[in-house]
Amino acid sequence: MESSLYFSLIDINPILQCSLCNGYLVDPYTIKECMHTFCRTCILVYFENLPPSEYKCPKCNLNLQPFSDISKCLIPDRQYEDILHSLLPLLDIDEINNEKKFYEQNSLSIPKDLRLKLRLVQNLSPMRFIDKQNHVRMRSLKTKSTISRVKKSTIPIALQIELCKKYIDPSLTIKQYPRKYLCINSQLEINHVRKYIETICQISKPYKVYLFFYDSCLSDSTPLLLIKNLLFSSNDRMKLFFSIMLIK
User: Fold this and answer.
1) Please, are residues 124 and 147 in contact by the beta-carbon 8 Å criterion?
2) Number of domains in the chain
3) Is residue 147 situated within a structural domain?
4) Of the candidates 138, 165, 186, which is a domain's last residue?
5) pLDDT score for 127
6) Does one domain contain both 169 and 215?
7) pLDDT of amino acid 145
8) Which residue has the higher pLDDT, 168 or 154?
9) Which domain holds residue 86?
10) Same domain, 47 and 19
11) I need a surface site. Which of 18, 25, 170, 198 has the fewest CB within 10 A?
């Protein structure tokens, strides 16, 4: 007997939508400084006619002026892409059919890669689908899928960050603290986590956030994946501490 798990698309729509086009994320790219995600085309078009002095995140207004080339602060977010492919397989089918319609309406020959996608779509039996009540239904797997995804996903890192209060200046007032548990892109570095904490806590000069693995201060350029592989077992949550210190 087939078993199903139900949840409403309304509940998860906010995290699957691009705030620039208000549609579902297509080829999602994340701004490394603040970790907000947009469609690749949307975010590139947004910055296309802006001078570097006006580079800001369209969602949180974070200043991105240090980047003369905006592509250097963007990173492809395979986690979002995998979630969308998994929960909304019909979205991929719509994109492929719209692409086919474009070529047909403009009397253009359909490219070879699109013809291959169309053949796969015709034989696709998705594990998840949308029912008439706008719920995502998840079928139980009984047979091995004949279609495998070639592209490997970026494995997310489960990160726990805790404040080390003994290194906090008593005169410093912090109105908001970052979430204790994060699911973060493994392609990021320590400086991205630091800037995220500084943004949430509204920390600016002459103060700075520092991240530690117990007593060892971590360099800004250290990749999170390297820390995970060297200091933690594969099943353990990555736990780091942060402090806020006066820059001397």
Assistant:
1) yes
2) 3
3) no
4) 138
5) 45
6) yes
7) 37
8) 168
9) 82-138
10) yes
11) 170
- Separation of alpha carbons 184 and 206, rounded Å: 28
Q: Is 40 left (phi over 0), alpha (psi -120 to 50) or beta?
A: alpha
Report how far Cα 206 is from the mean position of its chain's Cα atoms: 30
**Nearby residues of 21 by Cβ (< 8 Å), 6 or more positions away:** 39, 42
What's this model's pTM, rounded to 2 decimal places?
A: 0.51
Residue whose tokens read 């705030």: 19
Contacts of 53 (CB under 8 A, 6+ apart): 65
Q: Tokens 């800001």 sit at which residue?
A: 56
Residue 162 located in a structural domain: yes
DSSP 195-248: HHHHHHHT--TTEEEEEEETTEEPPTT-BHHHHHHHHS-TTSPEEEEEEEEE--
φ and ψ at 172, to 5 degrees?
Answer: -85, 125
Instruction: Give me the torsion for CA of 202, 207, 213, 214, rounded to 10°.
Output: -110
